[in-house]
User: What shape does this take?
Amino acid sequence: MPKIFRALGAMSGTSMDGVDLALLETDGRAALTFGPTASFAFSEADRAVLRAAVAAAVGLTRRDERPGPLAEAEALITQRHLEAVRKFLADQQLSADAIDLIGFHGQTVLHRPEQGLTVQLGDGAALARQSGIDVVYDMRAADLARGGQGAPLVPAFHAALAESSGFGAPMLFVNIGGVANVTFCAPGESPLACDVGPGNALIDDLMFARTGRAMDEDGAAALAGRVDAAALKALLAHPYFAAPPPKSLDRNAFDAAPVAALSIEDAAATLCAFTAEGILSALAFAPRPPETLVLCGGGARNPALVEALRRRAPRPVRRAEDFGWDSQAIEAQAFAYLAVRSVEGLPLTFPGSTGVRAPTTGGRLARAFTAPAA
Assistant: This one.
């Protein structure tokens, strides 16, 4: 019988809102027992450091380069994850010895799969030493080295959730972070997945540029605005939407210039519609229509975005909670699940999810304690 691991997934997404943690007991296969979850918000000063790192990353040509702002951001990301892990363990009255693994995604600051380049900030070895828990990190590199896009990584976990649900019909997981991605899951089939367009990133950037706020809280601006048809058409003219999978995106792949002249309310409403249309563009590439769309990620909390999807979708749109899952914890749970698959030598990615040539494992294991040489 496969070993059951107690793994802690740690996720900081391209929305740059904070660190999400989720405890999962799993064998990296079908066994899933969900534990407590927690979120730890970044301060505005933290976000400023991360925005500077994203800007500095534009000129990178190697994934190990860390010029000034990137080195600062990597140290910050590692420290914030360490603080989050320690606080989580204290709150749950757990010792480090009670956790077998941390699955550490790190902070993506650049993703250019066409150049074989992806950069996630975070020192997995330092996190392992300082937390006293083994850490699996750098989970995208092996996929890229074998011809894949390196993203999305979560589909293996989506497939496990779908199987555990007993739903018995195809479902489309819609994960809305800074970038949106989808996974088509059908009973007995390998998952099919890709990034589909902007998630929260353009809306967040709009709000920050116009108001200094990090997001459109409760979708209030978008709900007060009207979609500008001409601007939406210009946004949807991007060639990415017509390109077949496999495909993946950098956070800053899209330009919001078409909404620059609109009021903040109309701009937010138009960007919500753009995100929804990008997500639904993936249906053209599904082998058959899914029975339902399952929303997860930060965007599932945006009423304007959920409304835009429900108004446009040809199939029912449901939240992950309708199936007994935590929509905000799924990505963190996924990286716990992937960490276990990594140490068990199981595939993290598949031809249908990233375009990799064959099912591929990945990740690097940093030990908390290294035995002294004999």
In short: Residues 5-150+353-366 form a domain with the Nucleotidyltransferase; domain 5 fold (CATH 3.30.420.40). The chain is about 35% helix and 20% strand. The first strand starts at residue 5 and ends at 11.
